[in-house]
What we know:
β3 and β4 form a beta hairpin. By secondary structure, the chain is mainly alpha-helical. α16 packs parallel to α18 (364-380). It is built from 22 helices and 7 strands.
Amino acid sequence: MNDQTNPSPATSKNFDYSVANYQSHPLSRLAGHRLISALRPFPKTRKELKALLNNLPDYSPEERNLPRALRKMQLPQLLRAFVALRRNCELAEYMYATICEGYVAREPHSAKSNAILQGLHECISLQQFGARKRVANTAQFCSSLTGMPGSGKSSTFSHIVASLYEPIIYHADINVWQIPVLTIEMAYNGTSQATLAHAIISAIAKLYPDGDYERLYLRPRMNAEERLLAAFTLIHIHCVGMVVVDEAQNRDYAADRSTGARKLGVGQAPLATLLITASNRLEVPLLLVGTIELEESIGTRLSKTRRLPGLPHWGPLTLEGTEKKPSEYHIFLSLLWQYQWLQEPPELTDRMYNLFHYYTAGVPDFMVKLFYYVQWDCLQEEEETFDEETIHRVAHKRMASIVKVTKAIHTRDKTSLTMLAQIPDLAPDLGLSPTKIPSELLAPASHADVDPAEAVSPFPYRARPAHRRKASPIDAAQPADFESLSE
């Protein structure tokens, strides 16, 4: 590694960073570890964690009296809202625990750290890098998070990183710039080493612009392997606590189509495999984030699929709940319902509750957009309230492509299921494949005329109780006790 890549002292910097403020960890085995002690203290209770993560609109019921043009300008806050549900808190806790455990065996400028850096310097190819002997008794920290499109995977980990971690931490006594979490996006075709290297180097350069890494490694004539080895070296130098790879399911779909079918089922995703190897050699935790297609991209080899377990698959918000512990769907919709800029906000009745589920399938992104568009449409049409007919109209008018899918999920006739089976990042969630439509998923003929506001869960393949608790109407003008709902 060139001397020019050594991080410089924090004299006068024009980027966002913090100077290490060491605070002893409450666990004795982690206390005193430099890289762990420099992290922000993690919330001690789930309630404190939710308070840190929740990002709700700046709202007052008095704003309903503002001119319509101004109320329209307030509505987009809904698109940035973040509600810390149980699944989101679990991800935050999992990330912190994994980052700390990954740091346990890593100490900057130690003999072990210098040996890893020397090994990277000596490697002239990725094949040689992968063949290097691993340090004994080294844990492997590679896991994955899969979920439906719109379930909030990317927005959640981005929000967690922004809320709980410093972008980069400066250790003045050892002149180390520590990056707790590095987020990158998988190469568009899942095979380009040059694109992956560019993503890693650019992400680090953005956090630490003084390194001038883009000039050093992205402009010179370096081949893809040299550039990727440089990227791995920077990950080690900056003591990255976790590498999060978004859209990890990406692969060469054009090649798949040209071969006539999904051939990767017996192979591997080249870059995912390479990242797993780098995680093992550098002892840096790796989190792969993507749709259910990630499982297919990784392949069927047990040596690779064993990296997938870790976090539960994120499907639609759950409907199961009790009086003391309401469902995720109930919590999310009840909270959204409080943020209405209409002068005569309707109550959240049981039929409204079911109707929203019919058109959104309980997918958070769809729920927020439908609620946003319903209010926007009302203000556009100079209406100060909405009803079931408004929801029907707005869903078909502004979310036609989504409604086509959610209605097919509810209809579940052969035509609908055949259409759903052709959506590769959704079909596995429904138990479908392009070549197989299980007969048990077909809805009975009597189901075709069901009132959308009385529709049952659109995911019958999941184990759900036959009768779920109805949502109690809430006073739209009064904020609900969200803390008691979400304990």
